[in-house]
Amino acid sequence: MRIGPYQLENNVIVAPMAGITDRPFRQLCRRLGAGLAVSEMLSSNPKVWKTDKSMNRMDHSGESGIRSVQIAGADPELMAQAAQFNVQNGAQIIDINMGCPAKKVNKKLAGSALLQYPDLVEEIVQAVVGAVNVPVTLKIRTGWDPDNRNGVEIAKIAERNRIASLAVHGRTRACMYKGEAEYDTIKAIKQSVSIPVVANGDITSPEKAKQVLDYTGADAIMIGRAAQGRPWIFREIDYYLRTGKHLPAPEISEVRGILMEHLLNLHQFYGEPMGARIARKHVSWYLQSHDQEGQFRRVFNALEQPEAQIEALENYFETLAAN
Ligand SMILES: Cc1cc2nc3c(=O)[nH]c(=O)nc-3n(C[C@H](O)[C@H](O)[C@H](O)COP(=O)(O)O)c2cc1C
């Protein structure tokens, strides 16, 4: 899979997830086999760029691999400026968010609500592509509701305006995250354009990844929620796609190593008190299958200090190993 001048190491991509795909998580997913990791969305409104939240989202220092930065907004001029700003800040790919159904984004008409206005979509895409000399990618849903799946129309707009690749989440905006993703529209999109298409939505296993790739003919797949607490899913899928065989599940000692590395990186990246707070949801995802009653997680979630979190997890894994 190529995006402009960039050849990806494989075709398994980390989906952008606000509040989750921060620098520590992207780095971890890349190390564990993802071919590309897209950053959390950044608003195109310059008034918020100086907030802690945006500053953290813009932090790519020391990040290895290709830096793909997502921007969200509805004003073509502001989107163009945001793209330029992020390229100056190290972005090697600009990704436009037209896939997010979140109210906060859509209240200001952005994300997947834009799919209702193909003319505006075209203006935004033209403005962004014209503003930067790096590849611009686009992420969409299949349409804005099940009666208006206009993904093919949007894909053609993308193609004629030099979008370098198109990621499609197999739900409409109205579907939010309900029901199951459908892949027929993604297949139709792939058949109607010649730019690379990335299939996204409900891919949770190596077999599903292969089914979706085979069915849609997509060039790559993108994984979001299934990577939460399971960042090794990327190497598992990549290995299966290459060999048709399964990698063994990681040993508990490896899970421990990965989780402790992730935790320390979160503490370091966000500082106090944010690091410890953000770590809670990740730890909870990692331990879901081990701590089924949620007993340890309840205790862990009450801890405020990074040192206390580290100690609690070390004790937890020692007890697991002893049993
Ligand atoms: C917590 C969360 C945050 C998300 N944030 C973004 C975002 O910032 N930009 C975006 O394009 N999509 C966002 N998404 C959508 C995902 O990129 C992806 O399209 C969706 O989760 C479907 O893929 P999955 O079934 O593999 O999770 C988000 C999804 C979740 C669950």
Short description:
With 323 residues, this protein is an alpha/beta fold.
Defining traits:
binds flavin mononucleotide, 2 domains, two-stranded antiparallel sheet, 9-stranded parallel sheet, TIM Barrel, 323 residues
Task: Walk me through the structure.
With about 325 residues, this protein is α/β, with parallel strands linked by helices. The protein has two domains: about 1-245, TIM Barrel (Alpha-Beta Barrel), CATH 3.20.20; about 250-320. Helices cover about 45% and strands about 15% of the residues. It has 13 helices and eleven strands. The chain has helices at about 25-30, 50-55, 75-90, 105, 120-130, 150-160, 185-190, 205-215, 235-245, 250-270, 275-285, 295-300, 305-320, and strands spanning about 1-5, 5, 10-15, 35, 40-45, 70, 95-100, 135-145, 165-170, 195-200, 220-225. It has a nine-stranded parallel β-sheet with strand order 4-3-11-10-9-8-7-6-5. Strands 1-2 form a two-stranded antiparallel ribbon. The radius of gyration is 20 Å and the shape is globular. The model has no long low-confidence stretch (mean pLDDT about 95). Bound molecules: flavin mononucleotide.
What is the chain-wise order of helices and strands? EEEHEEHEHEHHEHEHEHEHHHHH
N-end to C-end Cα span: 45 Å
Beta-strand fraction estimate: 5-15%
Strand order in the sheet with the most strands = 4-3-11-10-9-8-7-6-5
- CATH class identity of the largest domain: Alpha Beta
Poorly predicted ranges (pLDDT <50, ≥5 residues)? none
Examine the coordinates and then state which fold CATH places here, giving the name of the CATH topology of the largest domain. TIM Barrel
Mean pLDDT: 94
Whole-angstrom Rg? 20 Å
Given the helix and strand composition, which structural class is it?
Answer: alpha/beta
- Helix count, DSSP H or I runs of 4 or more residues: 13
Main sheet specs: 9 strands, parallel
Please, how many domains? Answer: 2
